[in-house]
Write a structure and sequence with these properties.
By secondary structure, the chain is α+β, with helices and mostly antiparallel strands. It folds into 2 domains: 82 residues, Winged helix-like DNA-binding domain superfamily/Winged helix DNA-binding domain (Arc Repressor Mutant, subunit A), CATH 1.10.10; 50 residues, Dna Ligase, domain 1 (2-Layer Sandwich). Helix content is 44%, strand content 17%. A 3-stranded mixed sheet has the order 4-3-5, with no helix packed on it. The protein has a two-stranded antiparallel ribbon with strand order 1-2.
Length: 144
C-alpha cells in the first residue's frame, strides 16, 4: 500500500472515530510511512522542521501520542523509536523483528504466539491487555 492509500485509510479511520487528523498529525504520519525502520522523535522533529519551522518536541510527541492511541503506529520500546503500522484498521498481536545492523523492523502478527502468551499469563493470574514482543538480531539482508 502506498503512502497516499495509507493516508486515505487513516483519514477514514479518524472520521469513523470522530478524531481530527490535523495537518501536523498527517505530516508526522507521512514521515513515518516513508520509513522502513523505527524513527526517533527528535529525528522526526528535524524532518518536520523542514516544513514546520516552529515545530517543537511537544509538537511531535502530541502527534505521536495521537497516532499511537488510534493504533496507527507502534512504539519500539527497546530503541525508543516509532514505526507505522500498516494494519491499523484492526486490533492484532504485534511481534517486531529488529535488525541491530541496519535498523530494519519487520512487523509480524502471530496469533499462536499471542495465544500462548495469554495462556501462560492466565496460569499466573495475569490478564494481558496489550502486547508488543520485540526480538533483536540480524535480518536476512545483513546475514548474506
Amino acid at each position: 500500500m502506498n503512502i497516499e492509500q495509507l493516508v486515505s485509510k487513516a483519514k477514514q479511520v479518524c472520521d469513523n472515530r470522530g478524531a481530527r487528523f490535523t495537518p501536523i498529525r498527517e505530516k508526522v504520519f507521512r514521515l513515518l510511512a516513508a520509513k522502513q525502520g523505527g524513527v526517533g522523535a527528535y529525528d522526526l522533529l528535524e524532518e518536520l522542521k523542514l516544513t514546520e519551522s516552529g515545530a517543537k518536541p511537544a509538537t511531535v510527541y502530541r502527534a505521536l501520542d495521537f497516532l499511537s492511541e488510534l493504533g496507527f503506529i507502534h512504539k519500539i520500546e527497546s530503541t525508543n523509536a516509532f514505526m507505522l503500522c500498516h494494519h491499523f484498521d484492526c486490533i492484532h498481536p504485534v511481534q517486531l523483528l529488529i535488525c541491530d545492523s541496519c535498523g530494519h523492523v519487520q512487523e509480524l502478527h502471530s496469533n499462536s504466539i499471542s495465544h500462548e502468551l495469554n495462556n501462560l499469563a492466565a496460569e499466573h493470574g495475569f490478564l494481558v491487555k496489550a502486547q508488543t514482543i520485540e526480538a533483536h538480531g540480524r535480518c536476512g539482508k545483513c546475514n548474506e
